[in-house]
Design brief:
Organism: Cutibacterium namnetense
Order of helices and strands: EHEEHEEHEEHE
Radius of gyration: 19 Å
Protein name: Amino acid-binding protein
Distance between the termini: 28 Å
Strand order of the largest sheet: 2-3-1-4
Structural class: alpha+beta
Pfam families: ACT_6
Shape: flat
InterPro entries: ACT-like_dom_sf, ACT_dom, GcvR, UPF0237/GcvR_regulator
Number of helices: 4
């Protein structure tokens, strides 16, 4: 079996997910994981599927045909890697919205050798009409490149600088 990561982008319309899932099912693929969203009128999705090695090329070709329906699908072969020694962490941050928050946090993580598995962000009204809050949740992994204490210390340091609250929870 081969794992494929599909990235799909196009103008939002009914049936996009159905079009992709139909092709995956046609080639006996297994839909493992996905994230999909409508952002600014466009559809963006990522899907991890398993498919028999002999069916990879035909599935890839048929997914390419979806561009005629307004959906560009990119296919990337992946290999699942699981490192049991890695600590799994969840970082939650919230603060008044301003440019550069995600860059500062992710640059710090990258410098420390932290790998991001999942990142979700959003805006919401602050309580009592106090403006717009930016909120992010990051699921990440650290290896022996750094320690949990070092990451916590670095994030606490930048939290003051960028004026956000950051909580870090070890989910290992």
């Amino acid at each position: 079996m081969t794992q494929l990561l599909l990235t799909a982008v196009g103008a939002d319309r009914a049936g996009l997910v159905s079009d992709v899932s139909e092709l995956v099912a046609r080639y006996d693929g297994n839909w493992l994981d996905s994230r999909m969203a409508r952002l600014a009128g466009a559809f963006a999705g990522i899907v991890l599927v398993d498919v028999e090695d002999a069916k990879v090329d035909v599935l890839t070709a048929d997914l390419g045909g979806l561009e005629a329906k307004g959906l560009r699908v990119t296919v990337t072969n992946t290999t699942a890697r699981q490192h049991e020694s890695e600590a799994v962490l969840v970082v939650h941050l919230v603060g008044h919205d301003h440019p550069g928050i995600i860059h500062k946090v992710t640059a710090t993580m990258a410098r420390l050798g932290v790998t991001i598995d999942d990142l979700s962000t959003g805006l919401r009204e602050a309580p009592m009409g106090d403006g717009i809050l930016f909120e992010a949740q990051v699921q990440c992994r650290i290896t022996n490149a750094t320690t949990l204490d070092d990451l916590r210390s670095e994030l606490e340091s930048i939290a003051t600088e960028i004026m956000v609250d950051i909580d870090l929870v070890d989910r290992s």
